[in-house]
Design brief:
Layout lengths: L6 H4 L15 H15 L11 H8 L3 H13 L3 E4 L2 E5 L10 E2 L3 H7 L4 E10 L2 H7 L7 E10 L2 E10 L1 H4 L12 H9 L5 E10 L2 H7 L6 E10 L5 E10 L3 E2 L10
Parallel strand pairs: 3-10
Antiparallel strand pairs: 1-2, 4-5, 5-6, 6-9, 7-8, 8-9
Helix pairs in contact: 2-4, 3-4
Length: 259
C-alpha cells in the first residue's frame, strides 16, 4: 500500500459473506478475521478501523458482537479503542499475552474448546458448601464430582462440582459426556439453568494442586465459584475451578449514566 488507507476503503476489504454461529462464537470469528487482516498487512498499523456500525452492517452481526471482538483485539495490543472515534491499529502482531474473557455462555463454551472432562470420582461427600448452597442439615452429604479439564493430554483446570442429593442421585458417571458439567444436567434431567453467579478469587497452588497442574507449589491460581440457578432461584450445581492465572481476564461493562 503506497499510502495510508481510509476507513471507508478498508471496509471494502472485509469479506462479503455473513458470519455464522455454526462456526463458533461470532465475536471470536470477527476478532480472528480482523487480526488476520492486520497480520497480513491488509490493514496497516496506524490505520483507523471502520466504524463499529459499518462492520455491523457489512458482516450482519450485532453491535455487541463487534464491540466484544474489538475488546479482544485491544487485549492483545493490536488496536486502541478511542472515544467517539474509530479504533486505531497499533501493532501488527500481539504485544500482550492472550487471555480468556468470561462474560457470557459463549465465553464459557469457547474457553473450554478442545478440552475433555476427565472424572476422578463421583459420590456423596459432606461439605459446608453443600449445606450453605443447598440448604442441607449439618453433616448431610451432597453429591460431588471431582475431575479436571484436559487438552492435548495436559491438565488445564481442576474441577470440583457439588449437586443437591435429589439431583446427584439421578446422575451416573457415564452421563457426564459434555465438558461443561451443567449441560449434562440439562440434557439428562431436562433442567433449565436460568442464571450463573460467578465469584473469582486469587489463590496460590497447594502441593496437591501444583502436582496435578504441573506448576510449582505456591504458583498463582485463579479460582472460580459458579452457582447455577434454575427456576425459583434454586441452586442446582456449584462448581469450583482452579487454573493457572496467567490466561485469566476479568472484564466489566459499567454504565455510569444515571439517566
Amino acid at each position: 500500500m503506497s499510502s495510508m488507507a481510509t476507513a471507508a476503503s478498508i471496509i471494502d476489504r472485509f469479506p462479503r459473506h455473513k458470519l455464522s454461529r455454526d462456526d463458533g462464537p461470532l465475536y471470536q470469528q470477527l476478532a480472528d478475521l480482523i487480526r488476520g487482516m492486520i497480520t497480513r498487512g491488509d490493514i496497516e498499523v496506524g490505520s483507523d478501523l471502520p466504524k463499529e456500525a459499518e462492520i455491523e452492517a457489512h458482516l450482519g452481526v450485532s453491535l455487541i458482537t463487534v464491540r466484544r471482538a474489538l475488546r479482544e483485539l485491544e487485549d492483545l495490543g493490536l488496536i486502541q479503542k478511542r472515544s467517539a472515534k474509530p479504533a486505531k491499529v497499533t501493532a501488527k502482531s500481539p504485544t500482550v499475552r492472550a487471555g480468556t474473557r468470561y462474560e457470557s455462555l459463549e465465553d464459557l463454551v469457547a474457553s473450554t474448546s478442545g478440552s475433555v472432562l476427565v472424572i476422578n470420582s463421583y459420590g456423596l461427600e459432606k461439605s459446608p458448601l453443600v449445606e450453605t448452597h443447598f440448604g442441607l442439615a449439618p453433616g448431610e452429604p451432597g453429591w460431588c464430582l471431582r475431575g479436571h479439564l484436559s487438552k492435548d493430554g495436559q491438565i488445564q483446570t481442576l474441577i470440583t462440582t457439588f449437586f443437591p442429593p435429589d439431583i446427584g442421585e439421578k446422575m451416573k458417571v457415564e452421563d457426564f459426556t459434555d465438558r461443561l458439567v451443567f449441560r449434562n444436567l440439562q440434557r439428562c434431567l431436562g433442567i433449565r439453568i436460568e442464571r450463573v453467579l460467578v465469584t473469582a478469587r486469587a489463590e496460590v497452588a497447594t502441593k496437591a494442586q501444583a502436582r496435578e497442574l504441573g506448576v510449582a507449589a505456591g504458583s498463582p491460581l485463579m479460582s472460580t465459584e459458579m452457582i447455577y440457578l434454575a427456576d425459583k432461584q434454586r441452586a442446582m450445581e456449584v462448581t469450583i475451578t482452579a487454573a493457572p492465572s496467567e490466561h485469566f481476564v476479568l472484564s466489566y461493562d459499567i454504565p455510569l449514566d444515571e439517566n
